[in-house]
Structure formats: C-alpha cells, structure tokens
C-alpha cells in the first residue's frame, strides 16, 4: 500500500522563492494506490473562473498576470480570483516545498520553473513557457486541455484524486509520467497548490512541474567516484573499529581477566591455608597477591590510556606531546625527536586536542615501524586562522599513492584513520613522501 502524498499547509516565505526550489523526484512522493475519485471526462464542466490572461516568467522569476475586467464574474458563484489569493497560494506552496523536501539538493532550475494554473476540474487555464516546452506544446495549445488526460493510465488517478481533494488547501506532490505532443514522455514531480478565494472555495490550482535532474556524465562519474571512495574509507573504518574491539577484547580477556582469575585463586588458597592454621604461608601468599593486584591496576591504566591518553586530561595537549616525544626518544634510543611548539595551550580548541595527539602518535608509530629514520621534527603552530601540525621524518619514505585514481592501496589503517580524524573536524590532511626523501604528515584546522 502506498502512503499519502506529502502535504503541508501554511507558510510565510516570499512567493518568488519557489522559483529557486531545487529539483528532485523522490520516490517517497509516489503512491502506489489511492481512492480513485475519477470524474467522467465527458461531463467535465467548462472553465468559468476568472480570466487568467497570462502566466509567464521573466529572467527566472515567474510573474502571474490576472487580467480581464472584474465584471467577468465566474458563473459558479465564487468570488473572482484576486492576485492576493494567488500570491497567498504561492507562499503556501513555497513554504510547503521548503519544509517538505529538506533533502533537496541545491540544484536550481536555470530556465525558470514550469508552472501552470488549472481550473478546479483539471483543465489548463494558463501555462508558462517552461510547462508548455516540457509537454511540447505552445501555451495557447494547452489551454482547455485536461492535465489528467495527458498522464499515464496509472497516474491519472492521482491527478484526479488531488483535484478532488483541493478543498483541503494543502500542497500535494507526486510523481507522474505525462504524455505531451507526439506522445513525448515527461517524468515529473507535480506540486499541486489549490488557490482559495475569499470565501474559502478552491478557484484554481497552481501546478509546478518539477523535472528530474539530468546530471552530466562528468558529474555522475565524479559522484560515483566519491561514493566509491567513501565506501572504501567507510569499510576501512569499520574494519579498524572491529580490529580495535578485538584488541580490547583480547586485552581484557587475556590480561585483565587472567590476572583477576589468578588473584581470586591466590586469595582462595591463602584463605584455605589460614583455615588450616598455616598463617605464615597465607601471609606470604597474600603479599604476592598484592603485587599481582598492583600489576593489574597498571594494566587497567594502560588500557584506559590507549583509549584516551590520561596525560591529555591531566596536563593538557602540549605537555602530553612533550611527554610522547620524550618517551619515544627514550624507548627507541637512536631516534632524535624534536618538538617545536609555537602555540599556547588555550589557543587549541578542546575538540581538536585528542585528534592532534592521536595523529602525532600514529605518525610517530609509523616512523618507528617503517621509516628507518634518525630524526623526527614535530611542529605545532598557528598560521593566521589555522592550527597546523606537521610531523617530518628523515627516513626512507614510500611511494605515496593517495593521489592516484584508485586511491591509497595500503592494507594499514593508520593513514586512513589520520585523514578521517582531520577531515571529520573540518580540517585538511596532506601526506608527502617519496622513496628516499622522508615523509611529511601535515594537518590543518581552521579555527
Ligand atoms: N613515515 C613513514 N615512512 C615510511 N613509510 C611509511 C611511513 N608512514 C607510512 N608508511 C607506509 O605507509 C603504509 C601505510 O601506513 P598505515 O599507517 O596506514 O598502515 P600501517 O602502519 O602499515 O598499519 P596500521 O597503522 O594499521 O597498524 C605503511 O605500511 C608504510 O608502508
Ligand atoms: Mg600505521
């Protein structure tokens, strides 16, 4: 079963906004079913409303002219349609489109919107160039024709249904296939907005014909490429997350779990010995247990530190980076690590601190693992409105494939993770490396 077409009512946006409404057909707006309020085509009353003299657009902004003498009274007894009623309908339509299609992409119709006015029974009363062109007719040729008659068999019901429901004064949108001159097919999203007169009667229906966006091949290729890149990155990230979970799980299981089991056994043993009067043995066992507990506390700290470096919270980013550099130099022995910090702690926004630390950490890990370097230079500084972090080594470098059309082909996750961290916070990431010429990792965030 289908859903009701999206509809909405009041709004106060300026009416010309609708001519900048982006164009998109959503499947959501297509129904599968509905009550067919079919009217007999043969018995349709002739249009007797106010004379719509012209409906046209000019430089992307449509103008509606309601002409003709006011004594041209409609024969059905409704008040003559006023410009105010039409602009009011436009406003409602505009607001409804704006609020009803939040996912619209910002693609506007450079040729102006295809627009028509229908009589309440669905006959064209006025048509602008865009709508006429869409159907392959001139505006004059369309006047008096029935919109429903131009629709696919399956879609006709929707048009008739919406016309019948016009009294509700709400915007209705749905996809239809229309057949124009020489059976030319046009797949469009129709927006129906009833125009109400002062007495609350529907005196006309404004219709916008929204064509699907036709993307140029180049753009399609670019979109598909970026989607493929995104998928690849996303898969890598999921894999990374999965690896991290496994690592944590095995650290908890093999490290913490084993240690706690051992402590439990030792305490049980000590208890048993105490019960059997071997207090001395119990005492020495408990002392060993105490040592184990201390070690376990250290392990928990280690795991927590891996998740979020404590130094960062305790001391701040700059001291944490200093400590990282010092520790790296001490652990490796043959690597000189220079940290050149030209920024004060409170110049760095809090939300960037963990990222900056992790990027430096991963870059240093990579250097230790892959670079065979003897020197690392880390710079954290401010340049105009940016915060810059660079990590340069003098190692063997590698073939940087990040710019190749196939994207990076590494099996590791470190570089991808760094890029993702930086870009997810609105920054830009760059990697420069070449065999024999060392590697430079740089990240910049606008603050
Ligand atoms: N500073 C560097 N010097 C030389 N090669 C590097 C350097 N940094 C990265 N690489 C190369 O880039 C590859 C990708 O690095 P990346 O950090 O993504 O993965 P990894 O370190 O291999 O694994 P992981 O970080 O997932 O544990 C590395 O395998 C290495 O070949
Ligand atoms: Mg790595």
TrEMBL record:
Cited InterPro entries: HATPase_C_sf, HATPase_dom, PAS, PAS-like_dom_sf, PAS_4, Sensor_HK_TwoCompSys, Sig_transdc_His_kin_sub3_dim/P
GO cellular component: membrane
Annotated EC: 2.7.13.3
GO molecular function terms attached to this record: ATP binding; phosphorelay sensor kinase activity; protein dimerization activity
Top-tier EC class: transferase
Domain PAS, residue spans: 100-170
Domain of life: Bacteria
Alphabetical keyword list: ATP-binding, Kinase, Nucleotide-binding, Phosphoprotein, Transferase, Two-component regulatory system
Catalyzed reactions per annotation: ATP + protein L-histidine = ADP + protein N-phospho-L-histidine
Pfam families per the UniProt record, alphabetical: HATPase_c, HisKA_3, PAS_4
Protein name (Swiss-Prot/TrEMBL): histidine kinase
Originating species: Cupriavidus metallidurans
């Amino acid at each position: 079963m289908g859903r009701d077409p999206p509809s909405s009512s009041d709004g106060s946006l300026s009416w010309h906004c609708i001519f900048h409404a982006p164009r998109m057909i959503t499947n959501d707006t297509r129904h599968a079913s509905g009550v067919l309020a079919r009217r007999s085509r043969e018995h349709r009353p002739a249009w007797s409303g106010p004379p719509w003299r012209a409906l046209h657009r000019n430089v992307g902004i449509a103008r509606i002219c309601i002409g003709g003498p006011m004594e041209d009274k409609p024969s059905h007894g409704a008040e003559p349609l006023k410009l105010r009623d039409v602009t009011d309908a436009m406003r409602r339509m505009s607001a409804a489109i704006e609020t009803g299609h939040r996912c619209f992409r910002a693609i506007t119709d450079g040729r102006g919107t295809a627009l028509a006015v229908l009589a309440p029974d669905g006959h064209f009363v006025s048509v602008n160039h865009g709508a006429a062109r869409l159907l392959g007719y001139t505006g004059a040729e369309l006047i008096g024709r029935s919109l429903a008659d131009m629709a696919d068999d399956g879609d006709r019901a929707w048009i008739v249904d919406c016309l019948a429901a016009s009294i509700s004064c709400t915007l209705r949108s749905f996809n239809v296939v229309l057949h124009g001159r020489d059976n030319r097919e046009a797949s469009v999203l129709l927006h129906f907005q009833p125009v109400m007169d002062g007495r609350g009667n529907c005196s006309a229906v404004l219709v916008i014909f929204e064509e699907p966006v036709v993307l140029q091949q180049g753009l399609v290729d670019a979109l598909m490429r970026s989607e493929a890149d995104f998928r690849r990155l996303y898969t890598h990230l999921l894999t990374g997350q999965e690896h991290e979970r496994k690592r944590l799980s095995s650290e908890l299981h093999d490290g913490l779990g084993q240690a706690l089991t051992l402590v439990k056994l030792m305490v049980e043993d000590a208890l048993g010995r105490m019960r059997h009067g071997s207090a001395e043995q119990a005492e020495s066992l408990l002392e060993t247990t105490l040592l184990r507990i201390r070690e376990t506390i250290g392990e928990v700290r280690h795991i927590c530190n891996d998740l979020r470096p404590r130094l960062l919270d305790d001391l701040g980013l700059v001291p944490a980076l200093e400590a990282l550099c010092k520790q790296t130099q001490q652990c490796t022995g043959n690597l000189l690590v220079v940290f050149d910090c030209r920024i004060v702690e409170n110049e760095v926004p809090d939300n960037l601190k963990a990222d900056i630390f992790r990027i430096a950490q991963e870059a240093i890990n990579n250097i230790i693992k892959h670079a065979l370097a003897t020197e690392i230079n880390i710079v954290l500084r401010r340049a105009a409105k940016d915060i810059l972090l660079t990590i340069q080594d003098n190692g063997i470098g590698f073939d940087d494939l990040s710019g190749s059309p196939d994207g990076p082909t590494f099996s590791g996750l470190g570089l991808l993770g760094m890029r993702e961290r930086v870009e997810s916070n609105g920054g830009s990431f760059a990697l420069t490396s070449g065999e024999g010429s060392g590697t430079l990792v740089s990240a910049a965030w606008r603050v």
